[in-house]
Amino acid sequence: MKSFMPPLVLMIVCIVVSGLLAFASDLTAPKIEQAQKDKLNKSLNEVFGEADYNVLDSEYDGVTQVITDDKGRAIFDITVDGYSKGGIQALIGIDSNGHVCGISIVSISETAGLGTKVQDNKYIDKYIGLSEPEFSGDTIITGATYSSKGMQKAVTTALETYNNNKEAILGE
Asked: pTM (2 decimals)?
């Protein structure tokens, strides 16, 4: 009988701990979801201004979500690999003429001081106005090649998704 006691006690402890973890997850999930929504809204408002934003119920390769606004813009929430896997989450805005009209970095986990340079306004401004994914050499940051290529991929994904699905996205 004594040989069954340690496994039985361990099983009870595991059940109790699992129950507590499930309870904590249920308790914090709504707060985490709201914090993520608030962060997204803050990024939208900072770069694209106040507008009526609408999250589309559609899926596109490489795009987390598509948001449209009452000004005819499509905003693509895209997460790409830089130096870190999934290291750059960006909002890429495309205006009604098919040009990049704004970029907001929602989160970044690239190397501080190097890869994080892709969030500098001076760097982001190099993409504003593009309508085709044709990049000049100045979109690569020396020492942060992976992060730069990640940003190029995000912009390319947004432009190609917009150009290939414009009617569906804008509801034309």
From this structure: 0.78
